């Protein structure tokens, strides 16, 4: 089918159905295996994916979707954007790549941040006026050849040049006002060279991903888009170009792309169904391929195939070729629902990557051969969709009446000064109170106990005993260090969202449903399929056990509604805000039960508050309103004397700074060490006047901070915040660290606090 795309997916998972890549990477990093072993595993994973996609009947199989760590990092290496500090290490290419991803003793890694509004993280390229762009790595070409040898003509996928630069940050040598996008012309030359090589290797199509245009862009950025694709489209030696925009509507960028000389455009009709109305009016589409993203690439629900076909019908005749695709890469969903032992009814509603590929193939055949050719598949899908829409277990009338009865006062607490005085009396804390963010190191023993419980090789009672031993050790360590507000350490939680989902009605869990979060790290997002409620307490036993061991206050530790939604696969049959209210009520029950059990401080974490922020400014306020409201609903059921903390991390907080104030927590702990406490001024500027715990050291690195560095940061903090409101804590939880370094780091933090207290009059 030369020339057409027919049916395709925009990308595919790469970690391996059984996390083979994770294990191979970790063995390589610990020097248990060598480069050849790692490359073997990688090749096998690629070959398996190509075969799976080809054999499933896709007309066009995406290539270059494999990565040892991250596709943005791959792009940086491809175009030669390797900062000097990594080149100078003198390592081989693979280890240079891993040094950029993970750092080495002498050199920290590139910064990592969230990929648009997903839970996937990419490495942030550093670009300056002197970055010497050149085609420096030919993996994309080699992998094209590798697939061609198997008889599969793949469609190499590259991060587009605009998105690459828009996600980059200026390097340290860049003068003020420099923007990575200033380098677009030089970068386009490298893409031109790569496209020519791919063409010579036999590539018919190349996919260039430009999701950055699903967010608001300036006129200059839109002009750069027009100019770039005018140039790339005009090259004499190139494959056909498919530009993919996803995670939202492309806005003005859509018209620009359609009037450019590229050969195809892929649009996300799941996140933005309204695009369907605009497309037929764009006449430039008549000589292009339109890949209609009809199958949700980032959620796990079975596609309503009838509805998708109705959408496609509206587009027939508006494009040169109408092809069917996923809304975005399938990187964000697990491989296969088949091996899961989820309740059969819920399972019949689900489609993971393997099932989504089949849906795309079915839709492609229906368009080409008519509905009758796939009548059975359509009937099965229709039955599942109807079953899900009418299933009793999706709706719980108690939950619905509880939500309906909510009043504004349910999400309002007393004025802060009243709470502050009541809490001061109840807690009697010293100035600059010290605490931690919740988790202590997850030791091998703790993880092993959990795995043994899952396998049934230890019983519930043995598991509880082992966790209690760990909690006791964490309490003793904190008392020994002299912390003021203690935590139980969260040993019982493999993951701060997954853990809660296992107690809540309305959620299902997977056993194998791993999704890459970054590098070798994976998460197993729970599936929120129905109305949410909390049949029984989730944390009260562990927390009261910890409180019983000490006279210091122990802080209860919960995950907030927004983060629970952000890190789950969420039902798509009602607004997210409605689901957030239900989750908030479940957390509210837990907060109140903790209070009733004598816990005087409760922290409700919302690290994903920024992540779910809509990409378009026009949609942000509505999100922030329900996000804030759900946090307040979760935390307003307590008396004035109970202190509510929240914790935020991984963010530039700028866009959500007003929302942080509106959460109305008594104490906010926030990542700050790496940005030298800048967030404190931003918060003061918008009137935040409650407790604040800026992280005084970065927990993402094994490095132990000197107490003098912490003293320095505390001094900076005290310039921005009065001592009465300042708390002292690390940047985030300690679960990825080891006990030795954590002991030293906290000791230094306490030493710095003692010195800072002495300077207060
Ligand atoms: N959901 C979520 N998203 C998030 C974060 C987060 O904490 N949670 N943090 C940020 C990302 N940071 C992350 C940091 C670390 C890991 C991470 O370490 N993940 C672990 C898995 C964590 C987990 O769920 N552990 C479980 C299951 C562990 C496991 O793999 N078990 C094996 C068996 C192991 C054995 O037999 O010893 C299996 O099930 O196959 C547990 O401890 O109980 C990994 O990749 O290895 C993930 C994300 C943003 N997004
Ligand atoms: C990603 S935020 C983590 C907060 C959690 N309480 C912890 O300490 O692990
Ligand atoms: Zn955190």
Automatic annotation (TrEMBL):
GO terms for molecular function: 5-methyltetrahydropteroyltriglutamate-homocysteine S-methyltransferase activity; zinc ion binding. The active site is at 700 (proton donor). It catalyses: 5-methyltetrahydropteroyltri-L-glutamate + L-homocysteine = tetrahydropteroyltri-L-glutamate + L-methionine. L-homocysteine binds at residues 437-439, 490, 605. Pathway: Amino-acid biosynthesis; L-methionine biosynthesis via de novo pathway; L-methionine from L-homocysteine (MetE route): step 1/1. It is an enzyme of class 2 (transferase). Catalyzes the transfer of a methyl group from 5-methyltetrahydrofolate to homocysteine resulting in methionine formation. This is 5-methyltetrahydropteroyltriglutamate--homocysteine methyltransferase.
